[in-house]
Amino acid sequence: MNTLQTINTEYLRASKTLETTVVSKENLSKVFFIYNYEGNSFRVFENHLDLINFFQNKSDSFIHFSTETDLDNFLLNVKIS
User: Fold this and answer.
1) Which domain holds residue 29?
2) Interatomic CA distance for residues 64 and 28, integer angstroms
3) pLDDT one-digit tens code per residue, 8-30
4) Could you tell me the CA-to-CA distances from 26 to 1, 30, 80 in Å, in that order?
């Protein structure tokens, strides 16, 4: 199982945040960017470019979850390479 560490949280508005989370397992790690919209829509981005393109309506390259439990399960079990 992976370990999670949120290294930054930006409050875009009171109900919208952007979290930078490091997912690690053994000596490997990967950074994910998580856009939390009102606590009921979570979009996960694997790089800055996909995140920027999402906000500019140019891309839908993200993983979407409707619950925080589903998000956590994904992050705890995602393969790190």
Assistant:
1) 3-77
2) 24
3) 999 999 899 999 999 999 999 99
4) 10, 12, 10
